[in-house]
């Protein structure tokens, strides 16, 4: 998210903005079936689709290590060299470690690289060493360290502290750090993350230059500082509520959570674990031993590889299989359609879906318990009305006992090439949990411009009782978030308004100056949000004025806690924080304007 440095790292903002043979072929294979021999007609052969197989190998971009593997460090270094600066490249990798102990490793992670242990608990797989994200490729600026992840490992860092200097779309899940965690790059340059869930950090977490962060259902030994917006829910050891000075928003528990599905080994058999739902959650799911939930053998998954068609993916779903998307890029000429309750669609290594010819990448029916996790949707050059739809229009069934979860599902419009979408993500099904997403209209890369990667709306929530935990939505031409459903809740929101608006007229919303980052519809009677921030950086026309970051009906049932707006270096300004409340931003000092409680 490029812009010129206008202030020091500790004031918090970036200078360049943060920022084989396909099993699928079996779908088209046909086999003659003899129907009998009593007559010429009965002896005729007919063509029937052969059933798609479940299970199989994970493809060339899933690299599996065990403690006896030779040359592990060299392989890690090879992948990192390829991916370190490949921000919009096509490489996708998952680095998986079988249970056991590994000594002396430093796994540096570049773009589109996931590292994970294959045990049921993080402590089953211990690296005496580090899993490192730093920003040497970008001159010490970590604000574009997107699209990488660490999951299900125990780390004993060599220095006592592991470095994880990331920005958006870089989850740290089910990790046990036997020491401290440093969230800033070497030299304490700019950083703009981030997300931790279901993790235990024995030592202290040092955000240093991190501008905002959300930590959920975890345990920390301490938390050293805050810049703009640090939010905690269900975190043992979290700092006390103190927003805005320091800007800590702390909820004792998370109202509802269900951890992301993950691949693991049961002996020599791959399975996918499905953690159970928790209410009023606090702390990790695995601290007292085996996590609670169920599991599925890999034989119940269609293991997809790049090049497979959408028709084959849908045939697998119709057949009753789940989907495991191995690392790579998948072009879709029709939507992936998830119609069966409790279906799992799990991506490895940032598997990427690109809808062609203006289709929607994935749609679900209004059914219980769908789990969508671990993939990236990249808009195609022909405008898609939507990119992801959870439930059809008008969905109304109650899914409170078994909601759909959308976890580490990321959306990008532009950057890797021209892309367009009217609305990126539409949530129609009730009780859906959106747990960590980054929905991004690109502000840098290729195919970027006010109308080149046009995308008016980021997320639209129509369903009732939807919960968002860790919502990052940025740079849309109009509203970034629109919320029409009743009883919605958001814990942590991070936003930047579109940098590239050419002038005031381009963002004019009727009589209102600009579209709010987060808009709750006038028809909503109950809604609540905690720890929400919106930033502007109108670098094409710094005279642009944004009326407010947040807009909502002014009624007792619509409540907000700990809101802020920030003008980055004075490139554009906000007149208010929410509705007509809050002081204007001013000058070039990049100091937030805050509202502790609304109304």
Description:
The strands form nine sheets. Strands 25, 26, 27, 29, 31, 33, 35, 37, 39, 43, 46 and 48 form a twelve-stranded mixed beta sheet that branches. This protein has two helices and 48 strands. With 599 residues, it is mainly β. Helices cover 4% and strands 41% of the residues.
Care to give the gist of this entry?
The chain is mostly beta strands and 599 residues long. Helix content is 4%, strand content 41%.
Task: Explain the layout of strands and helices.
Layout: E1 30-34, E2 45-49, E3 62-65, H1 72-83, E4 93-97, E5 100-108, E6 113-117, E7 125-132, E8 148-151, E9 154-155, E10 161-163, E11 172-173, E12 176-177, E13 180-182, E14 195-197, E15 200-206, E16 212-216, E17 219-223, E18 229-233, E19 248-251, E20 254-258, E21 262-266, E22 269-275, E23 277-281, E24 293-297, E25 301-304, H2 310-318, E26 322-325, E27 329-332, E28 336-338, E29 344-355, E30 362-364, E31 371-378, E32 384-390, E33 405-413, E34 421-427, E35 433-441, E36 457-461, E37 467-474, E38 481-483, E39 488-496, E40 508-509, E41 512-513, E42 518-520, E43 527-536, E44 545-546, E45 550-551, E46 558-567, E47 573-574, E48 593-598
Parallel strand pairs: 3-4, 4-6, 5-7, 6-8, 7-9, 8-11, 9-12, 10-13, 11-14, 12-15, 13-15, 14-16, 15-17, 16-18, 18-19, 25-26, 26-29, 27-29, 28-30, 29-31, 30-32, 31-33, 32-34, 33-35, 34-36, 35-37, 36-38, 37-39, 38-42, 39-43, 42-45, 43-46, 44-47
Antiparallel strand pairs: 1-2, 20-23, 21-22, 22-24, 40-41, 46-48
């Amino acid at each position: 998210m490029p812009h010129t440095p206008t202030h020091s790292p500790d004031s918090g903002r970036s200078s360049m903005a943060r920022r084989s043979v396909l099993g699928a072929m079996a779908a088209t294979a046909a086999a003659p079936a003899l129907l009998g021999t009593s007559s010429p007609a009965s002896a005729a052969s007919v063509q029937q689709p052969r059933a798609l197989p479940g299970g199989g190998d994970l493809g060339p971009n899933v690299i599996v290590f065990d403690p006896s593997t030779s040359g592990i460090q060299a392989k890690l270094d090879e992948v990192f060299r390829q991916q370190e600066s490949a921000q919009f490249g096509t490489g996708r990798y998952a680095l998986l470690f079988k249970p056991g102990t590994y000594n002396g490793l430093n796994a540096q992670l570049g773009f589109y690289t996931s590292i994970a242990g294959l045990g049921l608990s993080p402590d089953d797989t211990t690296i005496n060493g580090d899993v490192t994200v730093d920003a040497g490729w970008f001159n010490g600026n970590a604000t574009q360290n997107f699209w990488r992840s660490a999951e299900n490992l125990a780390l004993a860092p060599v220095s006592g502290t592991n470095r994880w200097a990331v920005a958006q779309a870089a989850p740290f899940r089910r990790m046990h750090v036997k020491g401290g965690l440093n969230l800033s790059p070497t030299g304490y340059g700019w950083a703009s993350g981030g997300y931790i869930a279901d993790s235990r950090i024995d030592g202290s977490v040092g955000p240093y230059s991190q501008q905002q962060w959300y930590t959920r259902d975890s345990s920390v030994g301490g938390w050293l500082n805050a810049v703009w917006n640090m939010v905690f829910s269900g975190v043992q050891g979290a700092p006390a509520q103190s927003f805005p000075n320091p800007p800590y928003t702390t909820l004792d528990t998370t109202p509802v959570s269900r951890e992301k599905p993950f691949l693991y080994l049961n002996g020599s058999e791959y399975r996918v674990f499905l953690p159970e739902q928790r209410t009023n959650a606090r702390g990790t799911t695995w601290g007292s031993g085996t996590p609670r939930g169920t599991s599925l053998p890999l034989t119940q998954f269609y293991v997809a590889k790049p090049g497979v068609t959408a028709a084959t993916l849908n045939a697998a779903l119709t057949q009753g299989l789940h989907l495991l998307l191995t690392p790579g890029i998948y072009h879709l000429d029709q939507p992936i359609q998830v119609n069966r309750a409790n279906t799992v669609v799990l991506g490895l290594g940032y598997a990427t879906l690109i809808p062609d010819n203006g289709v929607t990448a994935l749609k679900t029916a209004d059914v219980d318990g769908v789990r969508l996790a671990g993939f990236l949707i990249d808009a195609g050059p022909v405008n898609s009305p939507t990119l992801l739809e959870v439930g059809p229009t008008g969905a109304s069934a109650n899914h409170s006992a078994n909601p759909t979860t959308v976890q580490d599902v990321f959306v990008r419009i532009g950057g890797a090439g021209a892309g367009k979408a009217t609305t990126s993500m539409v949530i129609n099904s009730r009780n859906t949990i959106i747990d960590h997403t980054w929905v991004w209209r690109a502000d840098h890369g290729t195919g970027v411009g006010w109308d080149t990667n046009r995308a008016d709306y980021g997320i639209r929530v129509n369903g009732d009782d939807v919960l968002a935990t860790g919502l990052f939505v940025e740079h849309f031409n109009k509203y970034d978030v629109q919320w029409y459903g009743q009883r919605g809740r958001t814990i942590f929101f991070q936003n930047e308004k579109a940098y590239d608006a050419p002038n005031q007229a381009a963002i004019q919303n009727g009589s209102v100056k600009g579209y709010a980052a987060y808009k709750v519809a006038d028809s909503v009677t109950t809604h609540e949000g905690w720890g929400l921030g919106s930033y502007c950086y109108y670098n094409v026309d710094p005279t642009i004025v944004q009326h407010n970051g947040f807009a909502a009906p002014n009624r007792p049932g619509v409540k907000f806690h700990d809101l802020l707006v920030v003008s980055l270096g004075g490139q554009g300004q906000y007149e208010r924080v929410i509705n007509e409340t809050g002081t204007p931003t001013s000058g070039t000092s990049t100091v937030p304007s805050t509202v502790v409680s609304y109304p």
